[in-house]
Amino acid sequence: xxxxxxxxxxxxxxxxxxxxxxxxxxxxxxxxxxxxxxxxxxxxxxxxxxxxxxxxxxxxxxxxxxxxxxxxxxxxxxxxxxxxxxxxxxxxxxxxxxxxxxxxxxxxxxxxxxxxxxxxxxxxxxxxxxxxxxxxxxxxxxxxxxxxxxxxxxxxxxxxxxxxxxxxxxxxxxxxxxxxxxxxxxxxxxxxxxxxxxxxxxxxxxxxxxxxxxxxxxxxxxxxxxxxxxxxxxxxxxxxxxxxxxxxxxxxxxxxxxxxxxxxxxxxxxxxxxxxxxxxxxxxxxxxxxxxxxxxxxxxxxxxxxxxxxxxxxxxxxxxxxxxxxxxxxxxxxxxxxxxxxxxxxxxxxxxxxxxxxxxxxxxxxxxxxxxxxxxxxxxxxxxxxxxxxxxxxxxxxxxxxxxxxxxxxxxxxxxxxxxxxxxxxxxxxxxxxxxxxxxxxxxxxxxxxxxxxxxxxxxxxxxxxx
Length: 467
Prior knowledge:
By secondary structure, this protein is mainly alpha-helical. Helices cover about 75% and strands about 0% of the residues. The protein is built from eight helices and no strands. The chain has helices at about 5-15, 55-60, 75-180, 190-250, 275-365, 365-380, 390-455, 460-465. Helix 3 (about 75-180) packs antiparallel against helix 4 (about 190-250), helix 4 packs antiparallel against helix 5 (about 275-365) and helix 5 (about 275-365) packs antiparallel against helix 7. The protein is rod-shaped.
């Protein structure tokens, strides 16, 4: 054996291949060769292309430029060592790569678990925030729905109160139209008519106020429903996001409902931030609360309006009915006086007629005395000559005739006066009877028609819209 071969064999026998090299903790790594004749990774050993010996000279043959078909022993050892060293280097590199891969696997597994746990935690936190705002939205949706229903009920009360006002208006107009059928002096603008006109004014003002309030209630109901729609739309989005994030929080590596989604790891062009996301829902709830507070105030206003309008209308209706009662009492008192006057007038007519009859009898009873006196005077004018004298009898007869004439004139004057008085009494009787008829008609209109119709006047509960 050559020296190089002995050295190689010495190294291979004296240093166990399982001993680790200096500065390493790997017990399974083989030691590196003492001498490196080829670089690792360069493949096989490169040999000389010409033979440099001079054996051919001894044979008398020139071998310049030719190579022998055999390798010399150093070349053999070099090639063998190169292969051994390359194998060692490859194994060493493979061990390093394997251990690094194992470390990388452990590190990546730990990092993956940590990152996934952190992601799951963030998703759970996000889900808690989502549940909080979703519960707030549900609470506000229920509150504004309840408030809207209450406001709708108030609007219905307003509509019922407005219908009651229509009935009250018809009754007041009917009263005025009926009272237009009064006759004569009774067709007067009395206290009743003034109160009826005032009642019409009150009813018209109440109707205008109720109509305006109904329009305000309708507008507020629309705003409430708009806010409710916004809240429900937001809640629907959060419900869908809740389902998605709940699925993501519960999703595990061992589950089968997972797959690759290429291009998922990117941000959308338009996304909200957590601050803007919370602010959006907060603004929706704030607007809904604002409208709900406005709706509560409007409901309170509606209650006050209905109470005030019903009180005003009821007070005016009572004033009208009191005016009717006073007017009826006045007309009935006047009617009683007229009837009493008519009774006395009738009695006066009867007395006057009896007086006229007596006067006529008295006048008639004076005819014979006048005839007697005038006959006496006439016959005494036939006395002859000196016998035709103005004796006391003549004076007395003339005086008697004049007295009877005066008496007849007096009786005739009294008869004429009595007849004129009778005519006046009869005219007064006719006027009083007509006035009685007018008063009865007015009383009938006010009591039977007007007050009779006012019995259907809306009650306080109807004016409040509760019926």
